Structure formats: structure tokens, C-alpha cells
Amino acid sequence: MSRQAAPERGNPSPEPGELNGNRSEFNGTGSNLHSQTHQSHPGERHAFGTPCLAVKDLGYAFAADKPIFSKLSFELQEGEFVSLLAPSGMGKTTLFRLIAGLLKPQAGEIHAPEGQIGYMPQRDCLMPWRTVLDNAAVGLEIGGMSKREARRRALELLPEFGLEGTGRRMPHELSGGMRQRVSFMRSLLAGGRLLLLDEPFSALDAMTRISMQEWLLQIWEKHRTTILFITHDVDEALLLSDRLLIASHAPVSRLHDVEVGRPRPRSYETLLTPPFIGLKQQVLELLRPGQRPLEAASMNKGGLE
Ligand SMILES: Nc1ncnc2c1ncn2[C@@H]1O[C@H](COP(=O)(O)OP(=O)(O)OP(=O)(O)O)[C@@H](O)[C@H]1O
Predict the structure, then answer these.
(1) What does the alpha-carbon distance between residue 70 and residue 106 come to, in Å, rounded to a whole number?
(2) Which of 77, 173, 199, 243 has its CA at a distance of 20 to 30 angstroms from the CA of residue 2?
(3) What 3-state DSSP class applies to 238?
(4) Of all protein residues, whose CA lies closest to atom 14 belonging to ligand 1?
(5) Residue located nearest, by CA, to atom 18 of ligand 1
(6) Could you give all domains of the chain from N- to C-terminal order, each with its CATH number?
(7) Which residue's CA is the closest to the ligand 1 atom numbered 6?
(8) Closest protein CA for atom 1 of ligand 1
(9) 209-254 confidence digits (pLDDT tens)
(10) Given the CA of residue 90, which atom of ligand 1 is nearest to it?
């Protein structure tokens, strides 16, 4: 399904103190924001039902003459895997930093599960002086858990992340894929409800990347954490995602919203099927800046279903 993720809203005027820099806890069902969005898309199908992240009328600029976001709105439903695609420099990492609370919106609001967001930046950022176990546990410790309990939880998860027996190893003793898995485990342990993954596999060789993607799908299908995933790789986005959000114009004010649909579970063979190839062509068209205005974009309305 193709749709614009910045619906016209009935009452755009904020309550005093409600907008402009607020980033508040999203309390799930029953919020005005949720119901307004659904009213504006009566035919919209949400497979997951409960919103986990809502961005409304977001505005942000590092320099006043070069805004990055202008009145940007979109939602993620609980349990969704959504990929964000945009040309380099358009603001993907900045959006993650805003959602994670590392930057403050200059306009609009972000509703996110406060204290339950795991952010995995582009580089794994493991601390070279800490063991695998201590790196994986650090988010829990920062959250106030005792070191002993945090390490116990991390230890339990090592086998699931293909890291059994590596708990005492140092980051420099690991392969690139193993480092990414430690980093992902740290984000998952720290996050809980929403994971922001910023091009996690871009530095890996092709074969490691494929096995990491398939591994990530297995982990996601087991935990069903909501994931927002940045990638430049359309194949990767199609393999992993329920939906793609695509930005092609700066400042970003609207996103093409492309539903990938079934089948799941997917494998690399799925990408070679005609429906996926067709969808990939459409996505590549949308990514070309200035090629297609939003109104003219005609996506495969039913995704792959
Ligand atoms: N701290 C900062 N101060 C000033 N400008 C910044 C800062 N961080 C990012 N920018 C600028 O904001 C814009 C968006 O940057 P951002 O890193 O979010 O883009 P991106 O889409 O993630 O890029 P890429 O795909 O290359 O990682 C760029 O023009 C960048 O130069």
C-alpha cells in the first residue's frame, strides 16, 4: 500500500506547552493522536493495532536556512519492522537522535516508549576495555540494574545471539558480525519496546551481511520488538520489513509509505520472485530525488499480498 504518512489533521493548533520540543511517553491505545490518524485514513490497514511511536508535525534544523524536517508526521505500530530509506544527508540519523531523546524537536512532538528505546548507531561503539558480557549488559546497568543481575541477563542471551562461550572475550577478539551481534544484544536488552537500528550491517562483507539479516529476522520473529531500521540497501529493506518509509525531498515533510506485505518468513530466494523485483523497481523510482512528486507515485497498493 502506498500512502503519505503526513495526514491532514483536524486540529493542528497545539495546546500551550504541548508541542514545541515536547517528547513524551506514548501510552498506547486511546490517545487523540492515534485516533486522529486513523480517521484520516479510513481504509488503512494496520496489522498490528497499537502505536509504539508517533511523530507529529516534527520540525528540526541545524541551520535556520537549511531545515531537515518540516511538519513531518508518521507512526509505527507495536511489533512492526519498518525501514527508513532516504538519500545520504537527508536526516535519517538525526531522526533517530530525536526519537532517542539525544536531540530535542524544535517543533512538533514525538511520542515514544520512554526508557524502553534501544539505539544501535552506525558503528557498533563497543567499549574496548569491557568484555563481551559487560558490553552487552551496560544498558541495563545504566538503567539502574545491579551489575551482577545485568550480567546474568546478558549471559542467558549469549547462545541466542550466537555468542556462547564469548562472554569473557574482548571486542578486538571478535569478528565484525560478532561485534554487531553484541551491539544488537546490548540495544535489545536496553530497549525492550522500540529498537532504532542505524545501518547496522553496512560495514559487513556480503556473505556475513546475508547471514546477519537472516539471523535478525529470526530474532525479530521471536521477540517482535518494534524496529525502525535505516538502510541504503533496497534488497535489505524488502527482505526485512513490513513497511518502508521513503524520503526523497529535503526538507523531509512527507514520507512515501510502502507496505511490503507477505510472505513471511522470507529468505533471499523471496527477493528473486517477480513481485519483489517489481516492488524494488518502484522503490528505486521513489528514491530518485525530483523524479516523481508524491501525488504521482503509483505504488503496488496491496504490497505483495
Ligand atoms: N551535529 C550537527 N551539526 C550540524 N549539522 C549536522 C549535525 N549532524 C548532522 N548534520 C547535518 O544534518 C544533515 C543530516 O545529517 P544525517 O546524519 O542525519 O543524515 P543521514 O540521512 O543519516 O546521512 P547518511 O545516510 O549519510 O548517514 C546533514 O546535512 C548533516 O551534515
Answers:
(1) 10
(2) 199
(3) helix
(4) 91
(5) 91
(6) 2-11+18-116+192-296 (3.40.50.300)
(7) 62
(8) 62
(9) 888 888 888 888 888 889 999 999 999 999 999 999 999 888 999 8
(10) 21
- Greater confidence, 142 or 166? 166
**Ligand 1 atom 7 nearest Cα:** 62
Output the pLDDT for position 236: 92
On whether the CB atoms of residues 256 and 4 are closer than 8 A, the answer is: yes
**pLDDT-above-70 percentage for the chain:** 78
In the reported structure, the alpha carbon of residue 90 is separated from the centroid of ligand 1 by a whole-number distance in angstroms of 7
Which of 60, 66, 68, 99 is the best mutation target for the ligand 1 pocket, counting ligand atoms within 8 Å of the beta carbon and taking the most? Answer: 68
76 φ, ψ (degrees, to nearest 5): -120, 135
Residues whose beta carbon lies within 6 Å of some atom of ligand 1: 62, 68, 86, 88-94
- Burial class of residue 106 (count of CB atoms within 10 Å of its CB; 0-12, 13-18, 19+): middle
Does this complex have an ipTM over 0.95?
A: yes
Q: How buried is residue 122: exposed, middle or buried, by Cβ count under 10 Å (0-12/13-18/19+)?
A: middle
Phi and psi angles of residue 81, each rounded to the nearest 5 degrees, phi first = -115, 110
Residue 8: pLDDT over 60: no
Q: Quote the ligand 1 centre to 256 CA distance (angstroms).
A: 21
Q: Phi and psi for 84 in degrees, rounded to 5? A: -110, 120
The whole-chain average pLDDT of the chain stands at 77
Q: Report CA Rg, the chain.
A: 19
pLDDT (tens digit, 9 = 90+) per residue, 18-49? 222 333 333 332 222 222 222 223 233 344 45
Query: DSSP H helical segments within the chain, as ranges?
Result: 32-40, 92-99, 132-142, 147-157, 176-191, 206-223, 234-240, 274-287
Question: Is residue 289 very low, low, confident or very high in pLDDT (cuts 50, 70, 90)?
Answer: low
Ligand 1 centre and the CA of 91: distance in Å?
A: 5
Query: Is pLDDT at 274 greater than 60 in this prediction?
Result: yes
Contacting residues for 132 by C-beta, under 8 A, at least 6 apart: 158, 163, 166, 167, 168, 169, 170, 171, 174, 182
